[in-house]
Amino acid sequence: MTKKAHILIVAPHTDDAEFGISGTVAKWAREGKNVAYVICTNGNKGTSDLKLTTEELAKMREQEQREAAKLLGVREVVFLGYPDQGLEDSSEFRKEVVRWIRTFKPDIVATPDPYRRYIWHRDHRICGQVTLDAVYPYARDHLAYPDLFAEGLKPHSVKEVWCWGTEDPNHWTDIADVFDIKLAALRCHRSQLGHRFSEVEQRVRQRATDSARGSSFKLAEAFHRVEIWM
């Protein structure tokens, strides 16, 4: 992949991007845009199978994510490897996100909305907040993480941020023509969804229908979109 990505998706766990933004990702890929994923945790706690070890689960989920990303047309997937349920708003984590923003130089960064109220996985909140902070001002300023600058990772200014899972949507994508691809990508996550996929499909379809309400779309993904001019 070239160093420049039009869009960088920063997701807390494997399968989160497929739930939140995979229809939009499929459309971007069809349009010829470069899409890259950064997956922050290894998902090593997401199971009810008492026989699976954390190591086995993490390996399984990484492979599932690679399959889903390939199906969607994602060019590259980076795994940061933090433990599931273990993300913290730390300088170390923020630096890793800055590193990949400066490496891929995306026009758009997408991540979960950290401001969703009440019940929201803590990893989602932390991932969203750290990513927004990494976008502005850290990735932009050469004196932030000067060791990255010394490595040749020059500052980069992101043009837009798209947050999924938002309670304050202001932008929608029509995904009716790629909804089957979204479902196929979700099916790749067998360790999480294989035993209940018919139920998951109904919920995902209902969410897409609800997100499209009030627009001319039949099925949509909703985001809070912020254009960055600083």
Q: Could you please describe the fold and organization of this structure?
A:
The protein is 43% helix and 18% strand. The protein has 230 residues and is an alpha/beta fold. It has a single domain, classed as 3-Layer(aba) Sandwich (Rossmann fold), CATH 3.40.50.10320.
**What would CATH call the class?**
Alpha Beta
Task: Assign the CATH architecture.
Answer: 3-Layer(aba) Sandwich
Q: In sequence order, what are the helices and strands, one letter per element?
A: EHHEHEHEHHEEHHHE
Average of the residue pLDDT scores: 95
CA-based shape:
globular
Class from helix and strand fractions: alpha/beta
- Using only CA atoms, what is the Rg? 17 Å
Q: What is the count of structural domains?
A: 1
- What helical percentage do the residues reach? 40-55%
Main β-sheet: number of strands, strand sense, barrel status? 7 strands, mixed
Strand order, biggest sheet?
3-2-1-4-5-7-6
Distance between the termini: 28 Å
Low-confidence stretches: none
Strand content: 15-25%
Keywords:
9 helices; 7-stranded mixed beta sheet; Rossmann fold; 230 residues; alpha/beta
Concise structural overview:
With 230 residues, the chain is an alpha/beta fold. Helices cover 43% and strands 18% of the residues.
